[in-house]
Amino acid sequence: MIHHEDWSRGEPRILAQRCPAGHVWYLPRLRCPKCGGEPTSFEPGEAGTVFALTSLHRRTDGTAEVLRIALVDLDDGVRLMTRASDSVEVGSRVAVSVGAIGPHERLLPKCEVLSA
Q1: Ordered domains of the chain (ranges, CATH)
Q2: Fewest 10 Å CB contacts: which of 16, 20, 95, 97?
Q3: Long-range CB contacts (< 8 A, 24+ apart) of 6-9?
Q4: Which tens digits make up the pLDDT trace of 13-30?
Q5: What are phi and psi of 27, to 5 degrees?
Q6: What is the percent of the chain where pLDDT is above 70?
Q7: In this predicted model, what pLDDT tens digit does every residue of 92-113 receive, in sequence order?
Q8: pLDDT tens digits for 50-101?
Q9: In terms of C-beta density within 10 A (0-12 exposed, 13-18 middle, 19 or more buried), how is residue 101 classed?
Q10: CA 81, CA 101: separation in Å to the nearest integer?
């Protein structure tokens, strides 16, 4: 079991990993998925570009809800999934952060379009 103290454990931050060979990835692993090197954790920068975007339509407690989900390629080479605001489109330059989302105030990665 890997203990990665990030948003998934209640900490308001995103942690990625890199190996000595320079490979980077998101989601904790015991070894580099490309070369098997021992990883170190780091906080990637928040700027990136939206690679893909989708919407999920669901009903909760009789209320319709639309969730926008984006795959974001961070400038540090990490790709991760985030919640997306209505202004986000494929190719948008965005800032990724972690914030409380929804009625239960759950910490999740989210992205907003960067100001020009």
Answers
A1: 47-113 (2.40.50)
A2: 20
A3: 6/98, 7/98, 7/107, 7/108, 7/109
A4: 899 999 999 999 988 899
A5: 90, 120
A6: 96
A7: 999 999 988 877 788 899 999 9
A8: 999 999 988 777 788 888 999 999 999 999 999 999 999 999 999 999 988 8
A9: middle
A10: 14
Among 83, 87, 77, smallest CA distance to 96 is for 83
Q: Which two tokens stand for residue 2?
A: 């890997």
Tokens of 32: 């580099």
DSSP assignment letter at 23: -
Structural tokens at position 52: 């893909």
